[in-house]
Amino acid sequence: MSPRTNSDQLHGTLDLLVLRTLRAGALHGYAITQRLKLLSADVLQVEEGSLYPALYRMEQKGWITSAWATTDLNRRARFYSLTKSGRAQVEAETGSWERLSGSINSVIAQTR
Amino acid sequence: MKLIRILIARVGALFGREQVASEIHDELRHHVDLATEDNIRQGMAPADARAEALRRVGSLTKLQDQGYDVRGGGLVEATVRDARFALRLMWRQPGFTTVALVTIALGIGATATIFGVAHGVLLKPLPYPDAGQLAMVWMTNARINLREDWHSLPNIEDYRSANATFEGIAVYNDTSANLTGTGDAQRLTGARASANLFGVLGVAPAKGRVFTDEEDRPGQDAVVVISHGLWTRLFASDPGIVGRKVEFSGRTREVIGVMPAGFGFPRPTTDFWVPTAPGEQLRASRGSLWLMAIGRMKPGVTATRAQADLDPIATDIVARFPNQEGYGVYVVGYHDQLVARARPAIIALLGAVAFLLLIACVNVANLLLSRAAVREREIALRTAIGAGRGRLIRQLLTESAVLAAVGGALGIAVAWVGLRTLISVAPPELPRLADITLNWTVVGFSFAAAFVTGLIFGVMPALQISRAGIGNALKEGGRGSSAGVGRLVRRTLVVVQVALALVLLTGAGLMVQSFMRMQRVDLGFDGDRVLTMQVALSGQAYQQPAAAVDFFRRLAERVRALSGVDSASLISGLFLSTTPNSTNFNIEGRPVFTPAESVEVPVDSAAPGYFATMRVPVLRGREFTDGDTAESTPVVVINQTMANQFWPGEDPIGRRITYGQPDANTQWLTIVGVVGDTRRVGYEAPIRPETYLPLAQSPSRSMMLVVRATQDPRVIAGSVRQAVRSLDPNQPIFGVATIDDLVRDLTAERRLNTLLFALFAIVAAILAAAGIYGVIAYSVEQRTRELGVRLALGAMPREVFGLVVREGMSMAVIGVVGGVLAAMAATQVMRTLLYDTSTTDPWIFAVMTAGALVIALCACLIPARRAMRVDPLVALRAE
């Protein structure tokens, strides 16, 4: 893996979280933040100021695609869903994260 | 696919910035609403709930901007902004803009004009279906060294039946006729053709039908097919034209069909087609050469293959008929045949105009570079607020693109004017003249040329400026872009310009000299103040040859009696085509020529006094007089070349010759005179042996009247016409022209090429001079301070002057040296275009080099004088 800058790393982590959330199906922006909050037991509260730019960026890269649709509360919202390359990206990002966190854990474990 | 989707989204977003913004707004509002509701559920007051939600979302506008940048037309919008800025900049600098636009417009306009010609003549397919399969079939005649001679009918029949590569071969011949019965008698150009000509060409008549094989027989052939032009001009588009009877040269024919508009074979002026209807003699004789042939090759067959297919047939003919010795066959694609002569000239012109465009590009590039120095602060500012080098380059290239686009559009207007002018001054025999138009292909080419031009002149300044810009950010009074590399680049460009201009000047000089040499060639006769016109007698009254001879005798008498006429006579043809009526001959007392040695000579009928009228010297013996009649001794006059070739060192007067093979009943002709050679096939063809017979002994119904006037020949044209009409009002007069006109037509194409070359060369020289001027003037301006110091320290103004001139001339000299070398290589291409002029003619090279240096010197003078006048005090102070 080529070395990544700090912002790349941050971007990558957020991307990973969002992409994995979307694996289960299409969601709109607010739902994504709620789901992340729920799954992480309130630890991860993604800043909307970070989320939307991330969504737009990932859409530009072709990992997700968006479309207007009606929610079950009869409101209009923009839903995001994974594309085929997005699914591939999820695997890549997940693998990268697991390697990184695994190695960090390993260092922590051996330096008690 | 992804790329396309992104592009579409971006272009869409460009036009719907509002829409993208509002969509993001909606999306975020939905988010805020939900967040607000959640907050309320968690116990916040509604107002607080909303405020909290909004706070979390952060700056809406920032998100909109980011979203737009990512989702929207970031790149496209920036480019449009750059383009608008470029237009404003152009508007604010009218001087620069005008010069740049004029340069580009001239360059692209000239290029597009020549391309328009090239496209119409060389590239556009002929207006026949599958025209690539049409090929001319000629007979090669080794006896007179002619590659494109006419066929005899039996020979062509052999090719038709024995070939394996043609779908069909048609035969035809030029002919003309007098059309009477519809107003004034008219002389029309037409063709005799076999019935399958229209089938071979693949064009069906617009009305009626074409003739059939049955009608292609003598007696059954009283039919005619007319052209669309003839139908509208002389028959007022009569809807009942099919079936109408008309009088062609005294013979009644029925009009059976009208060809579609635009169809003209073999010439654009061909107005009618009649069957060949060959009689017994023509059907059997392999010695009567009277037909041209065009064939349609089978699909996939090339001319080379067809040639290989027909060659064995030619050999077989010679084997069966030994007197066909020396005859072969030659197949050439029809399109190639048409354009063969024009092609080298057009390609040379394309090359010349490309040079011109390059020079124009260099000029504009230099203009941009010098203007860039003025924009240093703006560039520095852009760099300071974050524009990367790539961004700068993009902006500068956009500016170049805008300049090129506007210049290109103007160039199309120039091309329009250029094409119209060219078409109007072009010689009418230029092949496919009617096909030269300003069509979409030419317009498309102009835009492509503009695009490439913009790249060429834009890329260097863009690279240069962006590099300097980055290095110079906000440096006060920075002069980075004028020093060092920038300066070298600009000088190199000017040197290149000078070299290119010299190449063009040399080429033009060679062409001009070639043309002038050609003009000075002695034609052998004096065409000054000589008027010509043609009369072709038709009708019952002139069936007897004696009647035609008598008509012409009386006509000559009447014309000589007119006031303003010095002398007059008649000849069957003044200028020969390359395949005149010619026949072989034999000399009394010498062995009969074998087919291989046999020489063919043209035979012309001349009225008494012809050679005197044309001031052709009679070198030996006499010319024809009224004493040479049908009853007196048969005589013949030959030209100098013939005398030298067959009676070297002897006097041919009194010897006798005969045409064809001599036998017991041969009529021998006595040579009574030898006249000087005349160039009758244009300037470039070699002079051949020629014979003349008295009109009374060799009657012809079609003659050319030559009248030498005492003053301007056009003045007497009316009275000469009147004289003809007074003898017989039913005989049309056509081809009225002075000899000067006819001779000018011979050289019309060359003249046009030479003019164009010269024009391009002059423009190139002006542009190069402007280039030198620009660079030197700028340099002087930049060095004002330095020059001021020199002057203050005691340098003579004259020395400063010399300094500046030396600077300019050093560039010019290098350019000239490079130009001479390049010209020596480049002019090799022009060899076929030059007449009696070497491609490395030292005189022309010397003159053009000197001229280029003089022009360069003049370009340096003004800035040098300005340098001389620099006031040291002012220069030193202003900093």
What characteristics describe this protein?
heterodimer; A: 112 residues; 3-stranded antiparallel β-sheet; globular; B: 879 residues; alpha+beta; 6-stranded mixed barrel; 27 helices
Descriptive overview:
The complex is a heterodimer of chains A (112) and B (879). Chain A is of the alpha+beta class. Chain A contains 4 helices and 3 strands; from the N terminus they run αβααββα. Chain A has helices spanning 6-22, 29-39, 48-61, 84-110, and strands at residues 27-28, 64-70, 76-82. Chain A has a 3-stranded antiparallel beta sheet with strand order 1-3-2. Chain A is globular. By secondary structure, chain B is an alpha+beta fold. Chain B has 27 helices and 22 strands. Chain B has a 6-stranded mixed barrel with strand order 3-4-9-6-8-7. Chain B has a 6-stranded mixed beta barrel with strand order 14-15-20-17-19-18. Residues 473-482 of chain B have low confidence and may be disordered. At the A-B interface, helix 2, helix 3 and strand 3 of A face helix 2 and helix 4 of B.
| Largest sheet, strands/sense/barrel of chain A | 3 strands, antiparallel
Question: How large is the radius of gyration of chain A?
Answer: 15 Å
Structural class of chain B: alpha+beta
Provide a count of the helices of chain A: 4
Question: Mean of residue pLDDT of chain B?
Answer: 84
What percentage of residues of chain B falls in helices of 4 or more residues?
A: 40-55%
